[in-house]
Fold these 3 entries.
Entry 1:
Amino acid sequence: MRAALTWATVILLGSFTPALATDCSTATTQAAMNSCAADDFQSADRKLNATYKEITSRLQALEPARQLLVKSEQAWIQFRDSECMFATSSARDGSAYAMLVNQCKADLTRERTKRLEAYLRCEEGDLSCPVPAR
């Protein structure tokens, strides 16, 4: 009885084990490519969020500037999502649509991150920079 219960548990747990991580450099199925594109976008988004958080921490004493950054970021997210919907609209009904949207979002997110990172490297006294140097 105990052996049967052990085997049943192993079989049951095996069915819930997540699939092995996909090697995105060799992904050949659309599902794998969709998953890789989603992972890439999530990675780019995490980096953007970390950069954004760094800027907001530097703007703590400058509430009007912080509020403008928040408004700008909200508008940018709306732009990014709308732009990617437009840019991928010809594939909307296809199996590659999710991959294309995530690739677009990842690319635009990396561009936005570079822009925000530039604010973190402003030199002291740079009046064109809204983020104070450390």
Entry 2:
Amino acid sequence: MCNIIMENGYRIGRLGEDERASVLDLCVRCADYYLLHCGILPAQKEVAEIFEDLPPNKEYNDKFVLGVFDTDEGLVGVLDVVRDYVVKGEWIIGLMLLEPKERGKGLGKSIHDALIVWAKGLGAVSFRLGVIEENKNGRAFWNAMGYEKVKEVNMTMDEKTHIVNCMTLRLPE
């Protein structure tokens, strides 16, 4: 289980199937992300992907769909994390989405720091993720967190094709 209270009063907790409507509301508020990445507005399909998509050879007990809640317990962010992919100890962050009014205030760094502590407690030694070339703010954020680009791949997401920067971070000891 995951229930992290951060110093700024925000909380990270596991999301359940019954919270899909709240996740959809968040995705709609983050339409800029979906238009940039997919060329479409978010709908139930995108919410289903957050809860259901798995990398090859992984099981649902390795997947964590986490919500970020503000001090009023409103959902302001979502994380999709899978442990031990591609190798044991390496975790993939499939999505870290924050609503626009929460961006640029240091919340992303606080979430990432808390995620590191929590994941290390469950055996993580590194994180990996992909960020599209066009997402300049996302690339700048992940670079600032210490991630290094290890390769580029081409990927099609709904209506758009992208160059995706595959990045990794070795977690501190």
Entry 3:
Amino acid sequence: MTDLEQARALTERLRRRFHDRSGIRWAIERKDDRSMIGTCGYPVIAAAANRGSIGYELARRAWGHGFATEAVEAIVAFGHRVMQLRRIDALVMTGNAGSTAVLRKCGFAREGVLRDYALFNGRYHDMEMFAHLHRDTTGAGQPPAPLA
């Protein structure tokens, strides 16, 4: 973003998505100084199908310190326990070894490649699909129990 109006517009879009339950986004902060280093959340929630897609991004200075893994673990737990999601998926640009490692550490399974799936900076890119199913964690086919 380059100006305050862009930030306001983004905040309004996120507020609307939260209000209509089609998405949710959180800030990622350092615990020691509470500085914001990224965001994470569910840009897509398909409540009727009990599934959602996650996304996250970190400032380059925060890469390699475990922040992404901690954030993904938290939003996956929230998704399964609070939102009652059976499936949580994530797309990663082919070749993004760091993000692939985060998802694998968090129990996601690679499901395949979606060819020419995403357009970034005027170029199409292949994306790898990863998924975390509730039954992968519990071994059960039943919906997750809500947090007490």
